[in-house]
Amino acid sequence: MSYHTHGGDVYRNKNVIDFSANCNPFGTPKSVKEAAVQAMEEVFHYPDTDCQELREAIGVYEEVRPEWIICGNGAADLIYRLVLGTKPKQAVLFAPTFAEYEQALEIVNCEVKHYELKEENGFCVEETLLDWITEKTDIVFLCNPNNPTGVLLERKFILEVLKRCKEKNSLFVLDECFVDFVEEPENHTIKDMLKEYPNLFLLKAFTKRYAMAGVRLGYGLSSNQRLLEKIQHCGQPWAVSTVAQKAGIAALKEEEYVKRSMAYVHAQRKKLIKNLTLLGYKTFDSKANYIFFQGEEGLYEKCLEKGILIRDCSNYYGLKKGYYRVAVKLQEENEKLLEVLKACRKDGEKWQKRL
């Protein structure tokens, strides 16, 4: 597996509207930026290695004990540290899914078994996944909703996977970084199962919910203290900067921002899916703040020429050229995207009449 190129590369693609990274379209809250600036007064001190104040704030937000929380330099940092701390020999992953799971597993020479999601099934998972989890399975990574497809797993099925993992003595890592963007997220998280299942590790981040990608702040939830200690010891002690900690604490107070932006994203997602379908693109059942669709090859380059950066998903394991992902952004930006996609259609004139 070669190095995976992510979205959000605005450093080599200047003056574009970035639809390739799936962050909150409302942008970073003012209070978060102000907290980050104020934190500069304290940067002559080393950061708190325990992130005590931040973990307490997350505990209140998530209704989880602070001692069950570990913070990291983004969710990706915790993925790598978890793998380094547990050194699994065999893993089960979706294909396609977030590439960092596999890249981390490669470091410890872990055998990766790809459960391939099929287009004819809408890239939905089937019950057969349970059969893939055996006595040889050390770790299972699932992303809900999945990235890049946006397909949401039902809580009932996730609990079946969790139970299966416990039976087979497998660690179950569930990535819930995008669950905040689904409607009724409280019905899809399984954080209430942490106490009963010490083999469960939940992964979350501030990156998407609060548009804080450049701050690098993520956290994990687990009742397994031994596991958390292993993860902690596999990274440098000052992984979370003072600026990140203070910004995170401020972000957790932004209740109205989250409520307002999530409702906005839900409405815009539905509009965007409808209009992409009218343009003749094949869309899939995304429940997150991004839309996965199929179009003609070369669409990435055509959009980029017109100032729109979309995510070419052809480098995801299990996908080929012609699959793309776009973030749900503000209405005027979404309208610009649709204009560009209309212009990019090979038979654009025909399809333009349908909008």
TrEMBL record:
Among its keywords, does the record have Ribonucleoprotein? Answer: no
Lineage at the top is: Bacteria, Bacillati, Bacillota, Clostridia, Lachnospirales
Task: Report the Gene3D superfamilies cross-referenced here.
Answer: Aspartate Aminotransferase, domain 1 (3.90.1150.10), Type I PLP-dependent aspartate aminotransferase-like (Major domain) (3.40.640.10)
Sum up the protein's function in the record's words. Decarboxylates L-threonine-O-3-phosphate to yield (R)-1-amino-2-propanol O-2-phosphate, the precursor for the linkage between the nucleotide loop and the corrin ring in cobalamin.
* NCBIfam families, sorted: L_thr_O3P_dcar (TIGR01140)
An MF annotation (GO) of this entry: threonine-phosphate decarboxylase activity
Alphabetical list of PANTHER family matching this protein: HISTIDINOL-PHOSPHATE AMINOTRANSFERASE-RELATED, THREONINE-PHOSPHATE DECARBOXYLASE
For this protein, the record's Pfam families field holds:
Aminotran_1_2 (PF00155)
Q: Which keywords has UniProt assigned to this entry? A: Cobalamin biosynthesis, Lyase, Pyridoxal phosphate
The cofactors named for this UniProt entry are: pyridoxal 5'-phosphate
Record field: catalytic activity: O-phospho-L-threonine + H(+) = (R)-1-aminopropan-2-yl phosphate + CO2
Q: Does the keyword Electron transport apply?
A: no
Q: Which pathway does UniProt place it in? A: Cofactor biosynthesis; adenosylcobalamin biosynthesis
Source organism per entry reads Blautia stercoris
Transmembrane annotation, as ranges? none
Q: Fetch the SUPFAM superfamilies from UniProt.
A: PLP-dependent transferases
E.C. number, please? 4.1.1.81
Q: Can you say what this protein is called?
A: threonine-phosphate decarboxylase
Domain Aminotransferase class I/classII large residues, every copy: 15-340
